[in-house]
Amino acid sequence: MQAVDYFLWALQRFYERREDRYVELLWTAFRLVYDLDDTRKTPYGVYYTQKKPLTLAALENDSPGI
Length: 66
Known about the structure:
By secondary structure, this protein is mainly alpha-helical. The radius of gyration is 12 Å and the shape is globular. The chain has one domain.
């Protein structure tokens, strides 16, 4: 339970504070991050995987003028 809590905390820091160091540290353990709220390109959100990692640059590049 504590491990899951730490992963969720790292994602919360990433999205709310744009602090990516914890997600980067844990990224090799992530298999899938499903961003339901990012519906700019598709109505179902965005998937981030090992091949398409969740980074601040990925969020900024996908942002059309936000």
